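Researcher: Let's do a round of design. I'm pasting the structure tokens now; please hold your answer until I've finished.
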């Protein structure tokens, strides 16, 4: 899943597993701690609004509890390894 940067204090980047008009998995990487979560059964319209709204963090906080989620541990472990190799803390 490709991740795109979001201009937000809350969210670092997002990705979506389906195309326009579909329901899919929304991946969110949080800015504060770098944790990554997959949110299930998210409509494409939610992803699109999150990607284009002026205040993505506010929008996301208002709706995220509507979706089941799980933390993506493998991604976090991989990202930490890459950052360590690059000297990024």
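Researcher: That's everything. Go ahead.
Model: Designed sequence:
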């Amino acid at each position: 899943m490709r991740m795109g940067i979001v201009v937000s204090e809350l969210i670092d980047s997002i990705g979506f597993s389906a195309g326009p008009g579909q329901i899919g998995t929304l991946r969110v990487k949080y800015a504060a701690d770098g944790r990554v979560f997959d949110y299930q059964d998210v409509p494409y319209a939610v992803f699109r609004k999150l990607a284009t709204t002026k205040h993505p963090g506010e929008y996301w906080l208002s709706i995220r509890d509507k979706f089941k989620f799980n933390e993506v541990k493998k991604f976090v472990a991989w990202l930490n390894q890459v950052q360590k190799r690059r000297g990024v803390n």
